């Protein structure tokens, strides 16, 4: 076999071996088999959870469940589980509460092992769902449910969801010395508003700036990261907008980003932590950073948080201190030598005169 062809054969063998190692984990990722602590969106390609379509309709025009009910009332609705696979699937169906993930603020539904304390406890599904619900291949199952709003329910938005958890273990992941079975769940959101005084509330807290100085000041850009927290202190859902501004000495604007939608649904009582990159932060300045949060649906809702930081080019300062220290040392040595020379000169004259 010619050398060139032999090299090509070796490359082809190595490529096939690499693909053989990479494709299984990539297939697991594509199938969504890695464990998650929260339910996914309304469908995952294999099955979905939706509000039941009207009679005679194949599709629903509702993305989520939206209801309004006074304290002490009972609401009725139905949830549909759609099986798009080629085999029967068995699910554990349950209602739970919604939360925001602390980092990033993503919408999440509590997993089955976490007991709900809010609207998830108000939902009553058919008793059969306490064990399992089997949905035939390429079929669907409609499950009627009720929402019993407690007599002491406080006004405002209460958010949760109805989740279908596949009872089949779809994969295994190693966590230290323990192998963990992976199950997938899909949930449909449920928004319930109890009428009464609505008090939107939003605060910006814990604004901080973490700065990274380059080794060569003013030759490379300094980078910084603004971190802050948003807290929904009201009783209604807020979709916040965020803006950034920073002023240096004498009121100079050193950073500005206009308001933009965060694409986050901030639930009542929830706190989320976010960051904003600042790629060209000041090299040397005294800076005041201002983070302003607002909401399109509540124009009167505006909150601001600030933080001060001093930008110092420590590398340059250190180099100057070293140079200054070296200069002082040289000056001290020369001064000492000069004094020694001046002290020896009178002695030489006295010795010359005595002789």
Task: Characterise this structure.
This is DUF916 domain-containing protein. It comes from Streptomyces antimicrobicus. Residues 1-41 form the signal peptide. This protein is an alpha+beta fold and 355 residues long. It folds into three domains: 35-194, Immunoglobulin-like (Sandwich), CATH 2.60.40; 202-312, Immunoglobulin-like; 315-355. Helix content is 20%, strand content 42%. The protein contains two helices and 19 strands. It has helices at residues 3-31, 314-354; strands at residues 47-51, 65-68, 74-83, 89-100, 107-109, 123-124, 133-135, 140-148, 156-166, 171-175, 178-182, 185-194, 202-212, 222-232, 240-247, 253-261, 271-281, 285-295, 302-311. The longest helix is centred in the C-terminal third of the chain and has 41 residues, at 314-354. It is elongated, with a radius of gyration of 34 Å. Mean pLDDT is 81; it is low at 1-41 and 316-322.
Number of helices: 2
Task: Count the beta strands.
Answer: 19
Percent helix range: 10-25%
Low confidence ranges: 1-41, 316-322
Distance linking N and C termini: 104 Å
Mean pLDDT level: 81
* CATH homologous group name of the largest domain: Immunoglobulins
Named CATH topology of the largest domain? Immunoglobulin-like
The coarse silhouette is elongated
């Amino acid at each position: 076999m010619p050398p060139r062809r032999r090299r090509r054969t070796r490359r082809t063998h190595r490529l096939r071996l690499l693909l053989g190692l990479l494709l299984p984990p990539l297939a697991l990722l594509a199938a969504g088999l890695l464990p998650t602590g929260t339910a996914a969106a309304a469908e995952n390609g294999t099955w979905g959870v939706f509000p039941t379509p009207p009679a005679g309709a194949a599709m629903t025009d509702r993305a989520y469940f939206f209801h309004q009910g006074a304290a002490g009332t009972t609401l009725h609705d139905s949830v549909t589980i759609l099986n798009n696979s080629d085999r029967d699937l068995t699910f554990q169906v349950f209602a739970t509460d919604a939360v925001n993930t602390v980092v990033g603020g993503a919408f999440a539904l509590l997993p089955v092992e976490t007991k709900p304390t809010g609207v998830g406890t108000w939902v009553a599904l058919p008793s059969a769902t306490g064990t399992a619900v089997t949905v035939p291949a390429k079929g669907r199952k409609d499950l009627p449910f009720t929402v019993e709003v407690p007599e002491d329910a406080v006004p405002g938005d209460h958010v949760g969801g109805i989740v279908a958890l596949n009872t089949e273990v779809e994969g295994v992941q190693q966590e230290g010395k323990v192998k963990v079975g992976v199950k997938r769940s899909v949930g449909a959101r449920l928004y319930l508003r109890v009428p009464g005084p609505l008090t939107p509330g939003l605060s910006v807290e814990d604004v901080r700036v973490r700065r990274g100085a380059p080794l060569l000041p003013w030759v490379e850009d300094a980078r910084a990261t603004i971190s802050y927290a948003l807290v929904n202190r009201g009783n209604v859902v807020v979709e916040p907008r965020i803006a950034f501004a920073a002023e240096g000495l004498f009121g100079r604007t050193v950073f500005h980003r206009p308001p933009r939608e965060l694409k986050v649904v901030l639930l009542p009582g929830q706190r989320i932590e976010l960051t904003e990159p600042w790629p060209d932060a000041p090299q040397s300045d005294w800076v005041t950073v201002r983070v302003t949060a607002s909401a399109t649906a509540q124009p009167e809702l505006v909150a601001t948080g600030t933080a001060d930081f001093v930008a110092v080019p420590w590398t340059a300062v250190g180099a100057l201190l070293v140079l200054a220290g070296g200069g002082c040392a040289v000056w001290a040595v020369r001064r000492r030598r000069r004094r020694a020379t001046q002290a020896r000169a009178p002695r030489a004259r006295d010795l010359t005169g005595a002789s």
